[in-house]
Amino acid sequence: MSHKIVVGYDGSESADAALSFAIGVARAQGGSVVIAHVLEWSPYSFLTPTELEERHMRRSEELERAKSALLDPVVAKLSDSGVEVKTALKYGHIAETLCEVAKDEGADQIVIGRTGHSSLSSRLFGSVAGSLAQAGPVPVTIVP
Amino acid sequence: MNTLFKTAPLSAAALLAVSTPAMAQSLDQTINDGFAAATGWFVSFIFSPFPGTTFPWIVAWLVVAATVFTLYFGFIQFRGFRHSISLVKGDYSDPNDAGEVSHFQALATALSGTVGLGNIAGVAVAVGIGGPGATFWMILAGLLGMASKFTECTLGVKYRNEYPDGKVSGGPMYYMTKGFAERGLPMGKFLAVLFSVFCILGALGGGNMFQANQAHAQISNVVGDYPGWITGIVFAGIVFAVIVGGLQSIAKVTEKVVPFMGVMYVLTALVIIFMNYDMIGWAFGQIFAGAFTGLGVAGGMVGALIQGFKRAAFSNEAGVGSAAIAHSAVRTKEPITEGYVSLLEPFIDTVVVCTMTALVIIITGQLVSDPETGLYLLNEAGTAIQTQDGNSGVALTSAAFSSAFGWFQYVLAIAVILFAFSTMISWSYYGLKAWTFLFGEGAGKELAFKIIFCIFVVIGASASLGPVIDFSDAAIFAMAVVNIIALYFLVPVVKAELDSYLTRLKSGEIKKFN
């Protein structure tokens, strides 16, 4: 069976380490990699009227920026790695959305870095790695 | 120049009498007199009663419309309540649309524009003049108003403008022009222009001056009396920083804190009500008895009814058209879903929050009644009910809450400032939308409006309660005059949307995502 690995990727050093680990595994097992980037978003946050009006425009800009500045370069870099690579770009709660991507793609594994772009809130409310370890639908590998 | 107000209808005269004592500050006085002189005629017109009665035609206008929509849509506010909750929870939202404005966000933003001083100060004015019975009529108006809101917000989304850059503009101006054109009706453009003019006045009045005025009243209530223009200038400076300087971070903080303040306000009210649980039955007795007899208030039963209806409309803005502007940015393929969501707004605003204020004022015994007859005693002018410490407006609410928790006046002062501020930000946006509809978009034109808006903050904080509250009411109700005419002509559109949506919901074509 072909091995499919979802990598949570945010451009941090730790995410790069996770990605190269995943590429290594995929190459060894003849599998493929899904590079998933999640834009943090809650439908229950509060916006001002101006933000409301501009939301659709901002969303398009954010998606475009994530694609051109983050995902496209990394895919280009991996073009000669010999591993089949595709991307997923989503809005939502990071850990939950990574789980969804894994389910939708029928992946057998999730790989993430231990510390992404960590913020104060992740220190207070638990990190993505912690949540995934608890809630992941498939085996989760956390790369230091 | 005050004679204008003496000839104004009951409400204006009554409010003037309960307004704050003559201020020594001459600058405030000058602004106040000038303001009363400039706006008196407008106020008199909007609140003129039906000939031979004391019943203002504008109140009937709003209630009749809300009743017509309620019947026309078969009590949608009750039938559709559960579906509304379901939509807000995101049960019907496509996960692939994450990152777009959700139903919850549109509702929360619209609510932060309406939940404000109307709920705190406005209700105190209603109960202070109309007695506990005003609460009954206020709740009734809130329930009926849910249907008006349903209608206008559906239309707001249906006829919004979506620009190539992804921005969205919607509101009554757009359904008046596009909706009328689509149905081959004349006068759409005329109504839209008229609405925009009133919307600008409403933004400067109820959405600005009334807020600044009551925020100042509450602050000076806590820290002692000082000239209103000082509060005005500070507020104007912060508002300026946000709407002109683009300091969205201040607005963002407010948007986040306001909902928590709202929840805290309701919880505190509930605690006070349950602390006096033996009085709950009595309070509801007063509300029902007062609703139909008036219990001695000025104007009797009709007086209670007018106050209740007026305050409800001013607080939840159903039929006014303002919410249609805020709701139109939501991401949905079905305009009717936003109608469903918006009907929760008058419910939360009026049926829940306003009722809490009224109950706390009644239960804590702020209103003075004659122990022998059970009727309320009126003040010397005979225009409002005597209160324990002679308070009115926001000070009355503050006194009621503080009688249970002394510290609450400080929390209330902060809540009032934040509510006032978030309402101002919302209304500066509504006003700006109307302004750009009239004069076109452009940085210079937008800046002109924003500066005018800030100047009115200072005027509002300096004027005494009477003239400001009257003008605020008048401007906001004038929007409703135009908006409801448009709604009458466009209801068949909403009906068609509703029928089609319900059919597809039943057939399973529209399904839940989670």
UniProtKB/TrEMBL annotation, chain A:
Record's SUPFAM superfamilies?
Adenine nucleotide alpha hydrolases-like (SSF52402)
Gene3D superfamilies, A to Z? HUPs
Q: Which residues form the UspA domain?
A: 1-144
**Pfam entry (one):** Usp
Which family is annotated? Belongs to the universal stress protein A family.
PANTHER family to which the protein is assigned, alphabetical: STRESS RESPONSE PROTEIN NHAX, UNIVERSAL STRESS PROTEIN UP12
Q: What is this protein called?
A: Universal stress protein
UniProtKB/TrEMBL annotation, chain B:
Transmembrane ranges? 57-78, 190-209, 229-250, 257-277, 283-306, 347-368, 407-427, 447-469, 475-494
Topology in the membrane? Multi-pass membrane protein
Claim: Kinase is one of the keywords in the record = no
Question: What InterPro entries does the record point to?
Answer: Na/Ala_symport
Q: Where in the cell is it found?
A: Cell inner membrane; Cell membrane
Gene Ontology MF annotations: amino acid:sodium symporter activity
Pfam families, alphabetized: Na_Ala_symp
Identify the domain of life: Bacteria
Family matches, as Gene3D superfamilies: Amino acid/polyamine transporter I
Does Cell inner membrane count among this protein's keywords?
Answer: yes
User: Would you indicate the residue range of the signal peptide?
Assistant: 1-24
Q: Under the cellular component aspect of Gene Ontology, which terms does the record hold?
A: plasma membrane
Q: Which family does it belong to?
A: Belongs to the alanine or glycine:cation symporter (AGCS) (TC 2.A.25) family.
The protein in question is named: Sodium:alanine symporter
Which organism was this protein described from?
Salibaculum griseiflavum
